[in-house]
Amino acid sequence: MCGIVGYTGDKNCVPVLMNGLTALAYRGYDSAGLAVWEGDSLTLRKAKGKIENLKNLLKESPMSGKSGIGHTRWATHGEPSDINAHPHTDTKKTLAIVHNGIIENYLKIKEMLISHGCVFASETDTEVVAQLLGYLYRGNPLEALKQAVSMLEGSFALAILFADDPKTIYCTCKDSPMVLGHGDNESIVASDIPALLEYTRDVCFMQDRQIAVLKQSGIEFYDEFGVSIQKTPTHIDWDVESAKKGNYEHFMMKEICEEPDTFRRTFEQYVSIKDYTLKSDRFPWNTARAKSFDRLTIVSCGTAYHAGMLGKKFIEHMANLRVDVEIASEFRYGDTMLKNGEPFLVISQSGETADTIAALRRAKELGCETMAVCNVTGSTISREAGSVLYTYAGPEIAVAATKSYLAQIIVLYLSALDLAQKRGEMSQEAVTARLKEMSRVPAAMQKILDNKEQIQFFASRSFAVKHVFFIGRGMDYALAMEAALKLKEISYIHSEAYAAGELKHGTIALIEDGSLVVALATQPQLQAKMASNMEEVRVRGAHVLTVTNGPWEGAKGHSHTQWEIEQMDDTLAPLCAIVPMQLLAYYLAVQKGCPVDQPRNLAKSVTVE
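Below the sequence we write its predicted structure tokens.
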């Protein structure tokens, strides 16, 4: 859940490491640090707080060298502090180490090491790994690392710099991502792709317990037994500029504004725009298999779970196929009724979400046909799933997911259409008509973005609100869940999503003067029912904001503010209506002075339980 960067080459490594840490800052962190070989010893600089604090420390006390490792920490063991910040060393400064993940048996190892005279400086599980390596080291870094890895339980990604071999970086991982690349007389390792894009586009992803040895001349790979192995690089075609903020104040606004392009890019990967037909071979089922499905299980976390909820609505409505959606952290520990051969789909932007990976592995053990919706080629989930439906959102830097969520629901919508056609629930003509209308959604999104000032104005008058309730029915309820999450995670305003029909079953007791209720009413067949729900909260003092699919006269009598998206097919409306909800969350957070791109306590990629 934090950032690792390591570099060895012919450049001064400090600017490279700092650029890498800055590129990974979106992942969430509370301290940062570097370890560099300065020619005669390992030198550390560590600072609690933002990377700027580390930059200031480096100005006061510069360092330079040709090899080093860096880290941004998100605290798990020990409070955020200079001492607990990474990198860590063993007592004799034999080595320096950075670590992502959680070592589950660190206390047992720590007790053993203390009994052998080790003195610990921090509260972290990472220092335990450093001290263990120092204890095992007998002049052969690879052998010490092999022994240490065999003793560690839990998740980890490790980058280590040994004082005896200062031009080499040693790496290994388990259930935590590491990506490596070799450039022009330099090798670099990181926990995520953006840190490498400036140096190389051809990268290798490490698998569990593999070991990598990075030198200026190249990278060697070994399995957990120390046997040399070959890895084929994956080419990353992300635009370097797309990982930069440009002229936008925040990455989140940049990424919301990129949604029309994300829509087109993802749409065109699965649809032939010459004749508006689906590229049926892009989907992981043929006609016979699609007809044989009795149930599809979708498992994911957070925003991806909300995408799954909307996917359930799409698939059940269009393909007449039962869909069960579960939260990955609940699924992995609950009883399951999955059967051998059943289709099982996971959704993850990063492809490294720990709970989702665990759910995928459990489904594989049960013999399920596994599939994934994922944004990152070469990620753990994309490697382990039987087949992958890629999204094409490009790098997403802000912690709050926006364009990646959109790409996920586009893929799920197109999957619903493909299943419907192959199962005989929709004709080719009906699918083509739907695809033609779908192709017009990006223009409708752009109209919202071009007129976002009305949302900004609303936010400027509403940012002091204490409670926001999002209500909807059917697809709008699934959309409301994501809208509420966006608001709470970046503005820290208490917000909840409720099925509108459930208000009278207890929730309406929370409504008071000044509450803001956002009524999502994009489904015309349900608007009469929504009108009653809107009136219930309006007469109890709530300010009601309504979002509609085209004009709806009834909204005026039951709400105070109305926003319209361009009229479109009911099933497509959620793909467009999410944009004003994301903008509302963004502008409320800005009005409150919140750190929009890096909300407190949150990380972009949740690689630990």
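The chain is about 35% helix and 25% strand.
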